[in-house]
Every structure is written in C-alpha cells, then in structure tokens.
Design a protein that fits this description.
single chain, mainly alpha
Amino acid sequence: MARKLKSDKVLFTASVLLVCLSIVMVYSASVVLAMDRFDQPYLFLVKQVLWSVLGMVVLAVAMRVDYRIYRNEHFVWAALAVVGLMLFAVLFASPVNGTRRWFGMGGLGIQPSELAKIVAVLFTAVVLERRMHRIDDLSYSLLPVAIVVGGMVGLILLQPDFGTSMSLLLIVGAMVFAAGLQYRYFVATVAATVPLLYVVLVSAPYRRERLLAFWNPDADPQGAGFQIIQSLIAVGTGGITGRGLMDGVQKLFYLPEPHTDFIYAVIAEELGLVGASVVLGCFCVIAWRGLRIAMRAEDTFGAFVAIGLTTMIAMQALINMSVVLGLMPTKGIPLPLVSAGGSSLLINMLGIGMLLNISQHETVRT
C-alpha cells in the first residue's frame, strides 16, 4: 500500500550541498574574468546567488505539488505546445556565440531546451504507463514518443545544440529501456543511428575539430585541443588536497569559461582529489536515491518520471566530468547544480523537487 511519507532527506542534502558549493566555486572561477570583462568582480556571484535562491523556491514548490497532476493529458499537451513554440521562436532570437539557444529577459538568459527535458520526461511517462503492456508493438507504444521527442530533437539541433539533443534522446531511451523493450530493438536502433550521428558530427566544422582534438589534443595545442589540455593541467596540478580555494591558475584566462562547462576542472585544481571526489559522491548519491525512489514509487507513472529525472541529472554530470577528464569530446553541457547558469539550475532544482515529491508517496510492502 502507499502512505504519505517525508521527503528523501539524503537526496535533499546532497542536492543542497552541491548548490552551496556552486556559489563558492562560481565566485572563485569567475571573479578575475568578471573583473576583466565587465569591471564587476561579483557579477557572476550575485547572479548565481539569485538563481540559487530562486531554485530553492522552485524546489520547495515542486516538493509540495502532487506529482500525479502531471499525468493529466491536458496539462502535458499544453506543456508540449508551449515548449514547442519556445523551441521554434528561439531560432529567430539574436545569436550568442554563433548559436540561438537563449531568450534574453532583463539581462538573463532563458534556455527552452532545458525545459524541453522535463516536458519530454512527463510526456514519455504518460505514454509508457498506458501502453507498456504492448511495449514491443512499436507503432502502438513508441510511435507517439518518437514523433514528439524527434520533433524536439530536430528543433534543438537547428539551434545548433548537439549535446542537449543527444541528452534528450538518452533520457527517453533510459525510460523506454526501463519499460521492458526488447534488447534487439535497442541494437537495431543503435545500428541505424550510428551513420546518422556520423553525418551530424562531421557536417559542422567545429564538431569535427572537437572530435579530432579528443583523439589527439596535442596535434593542435593552441587550437581545437586547447580546452582539453588546459583542463587536464588543472586536474593534474590539483593533487590530493588542491592548491587552495581561490588559488587556481588555469581559471586565469587558460580555461575558457571556467565558471560554466569547466567548473569541475577548477574544483579539481583548487580542492584537489578530495573536493572532486565529494562532488562525484554527491552525484552518485543523487543517482542512487533517484533510482531508489523509482523502485518504490506508488505507480508506474511516478517510477518512469523518477527514472527520467534521475537520468537527466546523473547523465549530464557524467558527461560534463568525462569531458573535463578528457574521456569524451568537448560538449557544451554544464555540470548540474554546480555550473553557473540560471536555466540549467532551475530545471535541475525542479527535477529534484519532483523526485522529492514522488518519494513522499512510496509503496510500503507489509
């Protein structure tokens, strides 16, 4: 049977710890950069504090909203319509660094593709809950998911944002796998997708350069391989306990955007293996508790939502840390709950809040 329980305190503690660490490390990583570019050393710190406070409000509200209302078809289709319009409209926004991913609002950037992850999770969970009894009948069970998610991925690729589009596919793929789809369909999908991925990767010069730099960064140390090399230097010089907070060197115009995509390298340099391991441990705790919530969810809808949200956070963390450690080609994916950036932080805090609400409705077996 199900009973109303308290929220998962372990998940809540790990998440808040990362947000608090984020405020400290964003300031450390950005203070020199902010002073040089904007003559405001506290610029990114103030923004991160404001976003963190707003994120905690979002988390608190999501904790108290019964997750079962997201099952409503009208709500899901309305959310899909809003996100679809936003993903389309952002293609006409002013480009930032050659991409169109953000809406500018009062000096803040809103990224629709981040919200698309949450909406895709809810839509997929609704479809899978109602059709998983015929999961291997692809035209019945997965065609709606393929059409809707495929449309989102296509719009995100046009921005262009390869990393987020692939993340969205992996999140939905994990949910479909959990629904019991046979392995042979996954093998066939991967086989069919590889040629398409190859075309997407080599079609853009910057993606091709990143891929080549991943295989041999020393071939172009001042160009495509610069980010990976500087990141590895930061990680390697941190040692066990690090250089000390605020004493990092690589953030001083060596690491590009050290407060966003490469903040884990700054953590490794200033706080050493100890600090980097604490961050990794927090994400492992989030993954563990998220999967635990999915296994104990009151219904299959809650289980699928928990799997999707947990995958969203854990997978992004894995990709970001892998890039910093030179285990994957460079991608523009921030470290969840830690990197500077409002949209990513708010969406991940929303996801944590939804997980905490699902944890309040666990099934207790007696």
